[in-house]
Design brief:
By secondary structure, the protein is of the alpha/beta class. It contains nine helices and five strands; from the N terminus they run βαβαααβααβααβα. It has a five-stranded parallel sheet with strand order 2-3-1-4-5. α4 packs parallel to α6 (133-141). The radius of gyration is 17 Å and the shape is globular. The N and C termini lie close together (8 Å).
Length: 217
């Protein structure tokens, strides 16, 4: 089973994923958590390291602050970077994820397909990447989640939580508003199975998530 969590920074994804992982492990189920975002997959990071002549951590090994710093970095390489990033997702989401889920392992993804779509829409506004053949190939190949959540909070609440966490590279409120509007548009388009209001207490949110996951196990 593949379970994906999407949403704004500081919507509560990491907290809810950790609680769900603990819950599933207590039930005796094998679980793996993966931070999954186009442009920052192991293949692309490996390519960047070759170019830089150095080594770096795997995406899932990085802290939230390190991930934020990468996401805020200015795009380089023109059209080549998004093209290669999408091509890498064909193999990462289409093949690697299937291998990782062998033996009935439950994969929990911190961000996934539509988060990458929104990221690319913001980071590469001059490219109609969703019309590219490589994007269509990736869309045909990627492992579809059995359960998909999108967690929503207001930009103001996202900013407040970001300040409480002392994030070193926070997005501006204006950029979060732009990002939220893109999420809301895709919610209207039915991209996720479950929309979770994360303006509520953590325990109440987790109860809803556990109930939904149990219904789909």
């Amino acid at each position: 089973m593949l379970i994906s969590f999407s949403g704004l920074d500081c919507a509560g994804k990491s907290t809810q994923i950790a609680l769900l992982e603990e819950y599933l492990l207590k039930k005796g189920l094998p679980v793996a958590m993966i931070w999954s975002r186009g442009g920052y997959t192991p293949g692309i990071e490996g390519l960047k390291n070759v170019i830089r002549g150095g080594k770096s951590k795997a995406p899932e090994e990085r802290t939230a602050e390190e991930r934020k710093a990468m996401m805020e970095a200015k795009p380089r390489g023109g059209k080549l970077l998004p093209w290669l990033s999408i091509l890498d997702l064909v193999f990462y989401w289409g093949i690697s994820f299937r291998k990782k889920s062998k033996g009935n392992k439950i994969l929990i993804c911190d961000r996934y397909y539509w988060d990458t779509y929104i990221d690319f829409s913001i980071k590469f506004p001059n490219y109609n990447f969703s019309k590219w053949l490589v994007w269509k190939l990736m869309t045909a190949c990627y492992r579809k989640p059995e359960v998909s959540f999108v967690l929503t909070v207001t930009p103001e609440e996202s900013m407040r939580r970001s300040e409480l966490k002392f994030e070193p590279f926070p997005e501006s409120k204006e950029k979060r508003e732009i990002r939220l509007n893109l999420y809301l548009q895709e919610i209207k388009n039915g991209r996720w199975q479950y929309e979770i209001d994360c303006m509520r207490p953590i325990e109440s949110i987790q109860e809803d998530i556990r109930r939904i996951v149990d219904e789909n196990l």
